[in-house]
Amino acid sequence: MALTQTVRLGLKELSSVSASPSSFLHGERDCPGLKLLARGKVRDLYDVDEHSLLFVATDRISAFDVIMTNGIPSKGKLLTQISEFWFSLLKDVVPNHIITCSVDEMPEQVRQYRAQIAGRAMLVKKLKILPVEAIVRGYITGSAWSEYKKKGTVCDIPLPAGLRESEQLEKPLFTPSTKAELGDHDENIHPSKLTGIIGERYAREVEEISLKVYSKAAAYAKEKGIIIADTKFEFGVDETGTVVLADEVLTPDSSRFWPADKYEVGKSQPSYDKQYLRDYLTSINFDKATGVALPTSVVENTMAKYVDAFSILTEKAPIL
């Protein structure tokens, strides 16, 4: 079985997306001697050899599935470092795709691009990526809260009446979505539909692993003073058929992090994540179609929240 890791990590193949810097106006970290397989909302993906790929986290930022026209300086470095932290912490729960995050340990053809990629690159194993996002919700917020208010359900899963915004669910809820290509929107689906997409075995394993990973991460984060309200995971399958945790994990881009000491049921919560950016865009009546230039204050405040999340969770400062 040929293993590939391209489109399904929020990336789009270059047959459809120009490789020129003009197609993405910021955060480029080009490695011209490597084959660029895909560019996504945040990451660029290069082919390295038969067994490995290079993930480069740029400073691009997206919201509502739209890339903004300016980025968040050094965000890619922070995302890479926090992912590396979580991959290490969770390695006893599920294997992951990381080979190394140290440029010194990467092949020679990669090391020549040290200036572009240091601190923001991961050498990863080639996998057959499962075309779904594995979302776990511990609290009812965001799109889940919107659906619940209308229908009393989340991803068509009935929930008890009388829940309040941001309330902790009785147990974490697995609510997968389809994985849309760049420019399209993911579609939330009932867990029962997962079997038809990735097969019964992998549907079962992805749900079980996602809930285990979330539970361990949430318990760890709570000890540090952060509530992980929800998050999303992506998985691949290696040559032995083993499910492997891939892409990023538990970053401020992919998760909602709430300060536990400010948590109050019945309203939206302050957070250390991308919700600040979403709220800003909502306040300016963002059309959810075309990226906009973010004001300096929004750029700086967004990054400050990301740094806070990293520092609280890891108990150290990011290397930016």
TrEMBL record:
Key words of the record: ATP-binding, Ligase, Nucleotide-binding, Purine biosynthesis
GO cellular component entries: cytoplasm
Known EC number: 6.3.2.6
Single GO term (MF) = phosphoribosylaminoimidazolesuccinocarboxamide synthase activity
The record places domain SAICAR synthetase/ADE2 N-terminal at 37-284
Entries under InterPro entries matching the protein: SAICAR_synt/ADE2_N (IPR028923), SAICAR_synth (IPR001636), SAICAR_synthetase_CS (IPR018236)
Pathway(s) annotated for this protein in UniProt: Purine metabolism; IMP biosynthesis via de novo pathway; 5-amino-1-(5-phospho-D-ribosyl)imidazole-4-carboxamide from 5-amino-1-(5-phospho-D-ribosyl)imidazole-4-carboxylate: step 1/2
Gene3D superfamilies given in the database record:
ATP-grasp fold, B domain (3.30.470.20), Phosphorylase Kinase, domain 1 (3.30.200.20)
> What CDD domains does this protein map onto?
SAICAR_synt_Sc (cd01414)
Q: Highest taxon of the source?
A: Eukaryota
- Report whether Cell membrane shows up as a keyword of the record: no
Pfam families for this protein? SAICAR_synt (PF01259)
Q: What GO terms in the biological process aspect are recorded for it?
A: 'de novo' IMP biosynthetic process
Coiled-coil zones: none
Q: Which family does it belong to?
A: Belongs to the SAICAR synthetase family.
Q: What is this protein called?
A: Phosphoribosylaminoimidazole-succinocarboxamide synthase
